[in-house]
Amino acid sequence: MQQRTLPYLLLLPATLFLCVFFIYPFLLVAWQAVSQDGALTLEHFRTMAGHWKFSTAFWNTMLLALAVVPVQLALALFMAALVTRMGAGRDVILYIWTIPLGISDLAAGIIWLAIFEQTGFLNSILSSLGVIDQPVTWLGYQDKATIFLAVVLAELWRATAIVLVILVAGMGLIPKEYYEAAEVFGAGPWKRFVRITLPLLRPSIQTALILRTILAFEVFAVVAALGGTNLPVLMGETYQWQFALQDRHVAAAYALVILAISIAFTLVFLRTLRVPKEAQV
Amino acid sequence: MTAVTATETVAATADIRKRGRLVFAATIIVLCAWVLAPIYLLVVNALSSPDQVNAFPKSFVPGFETDSIAFFMGFAGVAKALFNSILVACITMALSIGLGAPAGYALSRFEFRGKGVFRIMVLMTRAFPLPLLALPLAVLFIRTGLDDTALGLALVHTTLALPFAVLITFSLFSGIPVELEEAAWTLGCTRVQAFRKVVLPLVLPGIAASAVFAFVISWNEVFAAAVLTIENRTLTAFLLQNLDVSPLHLKFAGGAVLVVPALIFIFAVRKYLFAMWGIANR
Amino acid sequence: MAEISIRNVAKQFGDFTALHSVDLTVADREFMVLLGASGCGKTTLLRIIAGLETPSQGEVWIGGRRVDHLPPRQRGIAMVFQNYAVFPHLTVFENIAFGLRMQKLPQAEIDRRVTRTAELMHIGQLLKRYSGQLSGGQRQRVAVARALAMEPDVILMDEPLSNLDALLRLEMRAELKGVLAESKTTTIYVTHDQVEAMSLADRIAVMDKGLIVQAERPIEVYRNPAARFVGSFIGNPPMNFLPARKADNGSWRVAGITFKGPKAEREEIAFAIRPEDLSHAESGLPAEVRVVEPLGPHVLVTCDVEGHLFRAVLESDIVLSRGDIVKLAPTPDRIRWFDPETEQSLQVH
Prior knowledge:
The complex is a heterotrimer. Chain A is mostly helical. In chain A, 75% of the residues lie in helices and 1% in strands. In chain A, helix 5 crosses helix 7 (144-172) and helix 5 packs parallel to helix 11 (221-227). Chain B contains 13 helices and no strands. By secondary structure, chain C is of the alpha+beta class. Chain C contains eight helices and 20 strands. In chain C, strand 19 (336-338) and strand 20 form a beta hairpin. Chain C is elongated. Classes of the chains: A mainly alpha, B mainly alpha, C alpha+beta. Chains in contact: A-B, B-C. Chains A and B meet through helix 1, helix 4, helix 5, helix 6 and helix 7 of A and helix 1, helix 4, helix 5, helix 6 and helix 7 of B.
């Protein structure tokens, strides 16, 4: 009797919590987005889409994700491959490479601000090399391209670590025998990577991609630190509508857009990188 | 003749090997520099006086002045924001372990109906941009009096940290053979006693690591903190709010204060980092 | 007094029936071995007796007390697990003392019992070590000592030797037998190793597909298998079976030879003989030799009798080679007969 109820008892607090603070708020935010004074309306979506910043923010967010995530995945795969071939010092290197994991996006933004601001380190180097006479403004309101680049660099710097950790953990689950067998059958290092590591790593790659893509759509503080509102992104606009423009409904509509693209991409990754249960390690 | 060629080939291969190793080491060093240099530059700024920070061109060695940090710490609201950040992070830590560990234990020890549903709900949280929860909750909190409180924000941060806590503790408990508990039962323990005397001592380090992880998640979170707090800003919310108005040296000192504890914590849990993510994959 | 009585116990896991209505009585101080292949339900039965599993139906009595609703700690049992379950965060001393501390015994008594059982299991010099510093065999000794220190009425053992290497297993087997005989507890011991079962048991309960097929003294189980399964499971190599056609009332033709047998209303039954109960003779079952394996004291000959696999253990001085036709004569009083449908043994009257 006790045996049967105990697991439910143990799950109850977490379940209740997730219902109240996860499922319910999402229903609430959805309702906020499509209602006005208790009546259904698409007015908020119209307001959102009609605002001149919306499509810029949408495409900026998409482009950022597109520029950051694939490079991150490649870089993390490369780093993970290096780590697996490392002997002594592996732990130290891994620790160093995962340091950004503990750094908040806001701090990362500030860190890269120290490099790109007008009296920052980039200008200092360039001027000492004699490339420029006057400090260049990189992050001004007209410098969308360089702000974009700075954000991409900051995101690459900050969030590659999480992909790396997931991939290294995944590689740790692949039995060594497979590599030895492949080597015996004549596969070189590159072939082994492509034919064994990559396919067997697919679940980890899937997790990393989902996690990173969703986080990329949530990009906010890095952009705020480096570009202020000069580079509008979805999450930043949500914040603007909530506070500066005091319109919760439109903010909720933004939230639903972010949610929709997050879920859409998650589904795409789940589908395209699906690993049949029978074929898992 | 053949002997000579053979030696030459061996020498050539050794040469390629050596060069390969050199490239390998160089790549690793470059990647380390890529990670470390920006942090170093932030530290340079934080340890320089405001004048040095705003000077041009800038020195690449810190002036070892504590003015900036002192100015930052003395700045109105910073001490309080720091306190709030720690408070919120501690509540988040306690909530996510307190709620997550029992669930992790249940998942690792029992087969029951609804297990799959719960797991899916936990995994689903990953496909959602969780900081957005702050928007509807802001309204809800105003109604319940939780608005602008540490607890209110901690509740949102817990939704971020709880799924990790569940999955990590699940893997921790799964690593402890059931037989150890069963042996304790046959030796006279109740379920609770067996848990306390056998399971708990074995999982405690791992639980501590996941608590630290929850702390860092909360400490670093910006969006929900900025949305949900007005008077009781956390450090991240405070810095975000003052980004446009505060002078550079204030930002950099703040950035450094934000980074340092996180670094220490990540160092403390480094051993568990990979084990955590290895399981969180599933 | 700790007689164990299992009455009509069954266990379902979802759609899977692990145990069909099992009855078994283990006498006080008896050493009972549950023997069977993996998945036969023997471990489930043991875990039900221990209280680690709840039976779907039936009753478990220990020492005249019904215990099936009690948690393990109130059943007066101690258990030794297959993977030893030695607590890794406690020293060997504290492991052995664990149950005694739960009983809140005085320290002096705990010291006495730990020292005594540790000496008994030859681990007296390891008391300060942790499990991680022990070999598999030493861990097993700790696990047994921990159970013995409880001075329980009943000791339950779940394949305790199966994780040890062969030589160590042999050594521990003999030691266990001595220690347990001395401790005078009732023991239930689960194993899939028939040699272990034969050598340790007062009685063996052979299990198959969630049922106890036969529960008798080892030699009975060996000589007079109650069912075809028992004969084919116990003995290495196992029993030989050949089809027997009815010749006339009470006699049966097996591979062209007529044997006296049971009176059964069947056209065909199964003739069974153990490989060591065959001898090379002038007349007997005609067998074509396939493989000859000299084993030292004997030679194991694998043959073909009318298309059926047939093994014989013969004197080692015999010279045979592949393709030879030999006559194998069964020792008459060792022949057994089985019903082809119920697979139960048929008695010769």
